[in-house]
Design brief:
Homodimer. The protein is α/β, with parallel strands linked by helices. The chain is built from 14 helices and 12 strands. The chain binds 5-amino-5-deoxy-1-O-phosphono-D-mannitol. 5-amino-5-deoxy-1-O-phosphono-D-mannitol binds at residues 57-60, 104-106, 109, 112, 155-157, 245, 362, 365-366.
Length: 369
């Protein structure tokens, strides 16, 4: 039930912190990741695989992309993400040392189910990450790791996205441990920080008032662009998808490095652009690059809406709006940065008087191919 919230989507965004906390619960034991659900794959499985392909659609594909950056970095195994409907019909090379991970909130998405069935028929092992107990995809897969976001009713996925990233990160740290590619010290550092994320997400929810004003002010906007690099790139894609889905506004996410290869031609005076800025503290490569991207678009008149770490002085002179998030590990930044984008979409849709829970032409669960 909606309780006191105006919509399920508003309620579900407010449940972002619990979605992370509940997906972590019981899975960090004595400084290690405990995922007994994976025993079904056999003891040496994660040492033997030579490739992971994550299949998913929509928001689940974006959470998968965030998770893939982390998994490949930590576990030193190639991880790629593919839209399930593309994967299914391109005759991919598969074998028993390929792990197919499917990502699905509902566990009933037909495109994803067909990709899983196809992979199994070609001899690959399948692992489902799913938010719905006993759904078709986890039932048919070799193993399952449940996300515990709780039921998600609004068509636009929000809290499940955070839970999906959480589950993939747990899987990544688990796999890195089994494969011996992460030191104990690094693992403990990551897991300690991971447990602070629900509280940090809660802090970010406090930006609602400001975003409410911003969205009211932008109610007539025709187009919004989103830029990010590395794990910020899928966050840009997700921010754009949320806005398209519920506010019916043209929105596009780009890898910031692509700007000069085309999209910068779209920038004209007044064009709003969200930029997901990585923390300057950890990073001497991505941060200066994104700051120069900001300068490039600002010079062409873009209205820069920066999501950055609190106190990021390099961004301040060039941003029209700064939405500050608490400091964290670079890989956890997406879990914070996505929240203002979810709020922006719902606030803008609400300012336009739209039904945010039931956007036109969309269904919560897409059970046809
Ligand atoms: O249930 P699933 O996670 O498999 O659904 C996948 C997509 O259909 C879903 O994420 C869709 O993109 C949402 N409407 C996004 O908000």
């Amino acid at each position: 039930e909606k309780g006191g919230w105006p919509s399920f989507m508003a309620k579900e965004i407010d449940e972002d912190p619990e979605a992370v906390a509940n997906t972590l619960r019981g899975r960090i034991v004595e400084g290690r990741v405990a995922l007994p659900d994976l025993d079904a794959l056999g003891d040496d499985f994660f040492n033997d695989i030579h490739r992971i392909i994550i299949v998913a659609c929509g928001t689940a594909a974006y959470s998968a992309q965030v998770g893939a950056y982390a998994m490949e970095k930590w576990a030193r195994v190639p991880v790629q993400v593919e839209l399930a409907h593309e994967f299914r019909y391109r005759d991919p090379v598969l074998d028993s040392r390929t792990l197919i991970v499917s990502m699905s909130q509902s566990g009933e998405t037909m495109d994803t189910l067909m990709a899983v069935r196809y992979a199994m028929s070609r001899g690959a092992k399948t692992l489902s990450i799913c938010n719905t107990q006993g759904a078709t995809i986890p039932r048919e897969s070799d193993a399952v790791v449940y996300t515990h976001a709780g039921p998600e009713v609004a068509v636009a996925s929000t809290k499940a996205f955070l839970a999906q990233i959480t589950a993939l990160y747990l899987l990544g740290i688990y796999t890195a441990t089994v494969r011996g590619t992460m030191t104990d010290e690094r693992r403990e550092e990551l897991l300690t920080e991971f447990q602070t994320i629900p509280e940090k997400v809660r802090t970010v929810l406090g930006v609602r008032e400001r975003i409410h004003e911003l969205a009211n002010w932008m109610a007539d906007t025709r187009s919004v662009l989103y830029l990010g690099r590395n794990v910020g790139y899928p966050i840009a894609l997700e921010g754009a998808l949320k806005l398209k889905e519920i506010a019916y506004i043209h929105a596009e996410g780009f890898a910031a490095g692509e700007l000069k290869h085309g999209p910068i031609a779209l920038i004209e005076p007044g064009q709003p652009v969200f930029v997901i800025v990585p923390s300057p503290r950890h990073d001497d490569t991505l941060h200066p690059k994104i700051v120069s991207n900001i300068q490039e678009i600002r010079a062409r008149g873009a209205r820069v809406l920066a999501i950055c770490e609190v106190g990021d002085a390099a961004v301040l002179p060039y941003a029209d709006e700064v939405i500050a998030v608490p400091p964290t590990e670079p890989f956890f930044e997406p879990l914070l940065a996505v929240v203002p984008l979810q709020i922006f979409a719902i606030e803008l849709a609400t300012a336009k008087g739209l039904d945010v829970d039931q956007p036109r032409n969309l269904a919560k669960s897409v059970t046809v191919e």
